[in-house]
Write a structure and sequence with these properties.
The chain has 190 residues and is of the alpha+beta class. It has two helices and twelve strands; from the N terminus they run αββββββαββββββ. A twelve-stranded mixed beta sheet has the order 7-8-9-10-11-1-2-3-4-5-6-12, with helices on one face.
Length: 190
């Protein structure tokens, strides 16, 4: 299996990209302009299939995603270990409570949601394909609501994220996206 760190780094990049894709899904499902999409929240199950040295390994994550326009995103992982990922104004914070540390990273990529929206292609009634930074994503909707995203990463891993209990444009308190570390948390700037 690839090192946990390289897989984790990849997943962090994916999470940033997925936050943008969620906005695209919301646009598709509600047939609204992008300016009308204010929030998205859902429970998620994320499965990473790794083919390493001929064996297939599977890691399953579960939690909740919340997004607030224009650029706030929070992934709250509950299993297999608790972890919080905050994205706000070009900064990603990965907080690991068991390690009592938070890693702050300035994001280098400038993602343009309108560009992505213009380039997303409808394959069938509920199937779309989108490309972000040369990465292709398959998007599936159920009853006009985001249900699944899947892709293969550059390491040959297959990633599937399933959404349930999805809500679009419901009220989300902006305070959920603020990371307030206590004094016992180590802060690392990357």
């Amino acid at each position: 299996m690839h090192t946990l760190f390289s897989t984790f780094q990849f997943m962090l990049l994916f999470l940033l990209k997925c936050g943008i894709v969620v906005g695209v899904w919301a646009s598709f499902s509600n047939a609204q302009s992008l300016k009308d999409i204010k929030t998205f929240s859902a429970d998620f199950t994320q499965i990473l299939y790794s083919n390493d040295e001929g064996a297939q390994n599977k890691i399953t994550y579960q939690g909740k995603i919340q997004a607030l326009a224009p650029s706030n995103l929070r992934w709250s992982y509950q299993t297999p270990i608790p972890k919080e990922i905050f994205i706000q104004e070009g900064v990603m914070i990965v907080y690991e409570p068991k390690l009592k540390q938070a890693i702050f990273t300035r994001l280098q990529e400038n993602m343009n949601l309108l560009y992505l929206l213009k380039n997303a292609k409808k394959i069938t009634e509920n199937h779309y394909e989108a490309t972000i930074s040369e990465q292709k994503y398959d998007l599936l909707l159920e009853n006009g609501i985001p249900a699944k995203i899947s892709f293969s990463d550059s390491l040959g891993n297959q990633v599937e994220i399933y959404f349930k209990n999805a809500k679009i444009n419901s009220t989300i308190d902006s305070a959920l996206f603020e990371f307030k570390p206590t004094s016992e948390i180590d802060i690392i700037h990357n």
